[in-house]
Amino acid sequence: MSQDLDLTPLQSGRSAVRRLLDLDAGVFEAAASWRWPGAERVLPRLSRGANHGVLWFAAAAGIAASRTPRARRAAVRGLASLGLASLTINTIGKRSVRRARPLLDQVPRVRQLKRQPITTSFPSGHAASAAAFAAGVALESPAWGAAVAPVAASVAASRVYTGVHFPSDVLAGAALGVGAAFLIRRLVPTRAQLRGPVRPCAEVPALPEGEGLVMVANQGSGTADRVRALRAALPAAEIVECAPEEVAEALEKAAARARVLGVCGGDGTVNAAAGVALRHGVPLAVLPGGTLNHFAYDLGVEDERALARAVRHGEAVQVDTGRFVTADGEGLFLNTLSLGVYPELVRRRERWSPRIGGWPAGVLGALRVLRADRHPLEVQLGGERRPLWLLFVGSGVYHRMGLSPGRRKDLADGLLDVRVVHGSRRPALRLLAAAAAGPLTRSPAHSAVQVKRLRLTGLAPGTPLAYDGEVTAVSGEVTLEKLPRALTVYCPMPSTP
């Protein structure tokens, strides 16, 4: 018995592909015959400069050199997107479609590259890298994205201009690059995606020129540039620059005469200012000036422009503060409090940061702490004696930003974010596993819970406790709690659509 096969759909599909390829070749031939004014000197050099991502690494360095947090995030996001696009092109793209490069007969000699690529033509790796970098930058910072986009488009066009790619190669590569940027955004959300709920607003004085604001700047945090910019933005503000050992006294004096107490420094300096502001009943204005600046960034204050806008318009919110009470007294924490290995890391970081910088000191301190031969901390928690490598308490719930460190969406949620890494013979593996798994996992190695109050007992004398980058010694019993909406802080409010 015979059966006839209908080959019409298959033939029709092949015919459509052939027409697309013919159209692609026709556009390439037309582009080869076009006269591109001024392109002969620019596009071939731009195409060569983009080899191996050199152009984009240089662009990322230039963007990051602007020294704003958003620019640094944009540069990192752009490079991450580029890396994913390049990996996809080299492992899947080039090996899936074995398309030959265009013939150069119709391309003027002056346009051709001196070194012709030897890989297959589809898709264009240069176009993918250019689109991935530009899209990644734009997703974090539209302004920088607009600056990079013309360069990225020129790199993509240069691949057709120099005759090394068909137009469809470039379009496919650009689409893949944009897709890589959006995939990175899904894994690591942008700061704009992490906007939290509307916070409780507070009534504070609007200071159009900054009159009534007394800002204490910790010179040990490298605040000179920020202070200079703030003086230009708020010329009537009083700014007191002092050495680290003079900060506490300067804050007390400033609060006594200020309508608004300002502080410029790292998280430890901001912690001290928050305590003074609470005692004197004045609102606080925070300008980030340290290494981490968790509190300011979670508020949405990334630079002097954001703070100046909030001060001019009288925009502020009420936020919670954490409080710890020991037998010897009490203290505040705006960000985190921890017991276990982290206080030792903080001590090492503070010891080395004046010589090698904050971030390198933190990495080196972490490596030394993880390699050290030590025993876990013994704590009475929930009526049970437990060995712990780390007990972390956040003032507010920290949310994982994909694969990156967590941020808080809400600084007035009334909760303590408690995470524990249980003791074992292999602290490094458990700590790294807890960091990679995220804050809300449950396992034999680590766990997390949100509470309003926590009581720890059985701490050995001299147990180090770290809070907002500072370290103190405690013993016996420690009680942790939240002070709901206790602190009023200036911060720019989101623009209404």
Based on CA atoms alone, the radius of gyration comes out at 29 Å
Helix content: 40-55%
Strand-residue proportion:
15-25%
End-to-end Cα distance: 71 Å
Tell me the major beta sheet: 9 strands, antiparallel
As residue ranges, the low-confidence spans are: 401-405
Number of strands: 15
**How many helices in DSSP terms?**
15
Indicate the overall shape: elongated
Structural class: alpha+beta
Mean pLDDT rating: 82
Order of helices and strands: HHHHHHHEHEHEHEHHEEEHHEEEEEHEEE
What does this structure look like?
There is one protein chain. By secondary structure, the protein is an alpha+beta fold. Helices cover 45% and strands 24% of the residues. The protein has 15 helices and 15 strands. It has helices at 8-33, 39-49, 54-64, 69-96, 125-140, 142-161, 167-187, 224-233, 247-257, 267-280, 294-299, 304-313, 341-356, 358-371, 427-437, and strands spanning 213-218, 238-242, 260-265, 284-288, 316-326, 329-333, 336-340, 377-381, 384-395, 398-401, 404-408, 416-422, 446-451, 453-467, 470-490. The strands form three sheets. Strands 5, 6, 7, 8, 9, 12, 13, 14 and 15 form a nine-stranded antiparallel beta sheet that branches. A four-stranded parallel beta sheet has the order 2-1-3-4, with helices on both faces. A hairpin with a 2-residue loop joins strand 10 and strand 11 (404-408). The N and C termini lie far apart (71 Å).
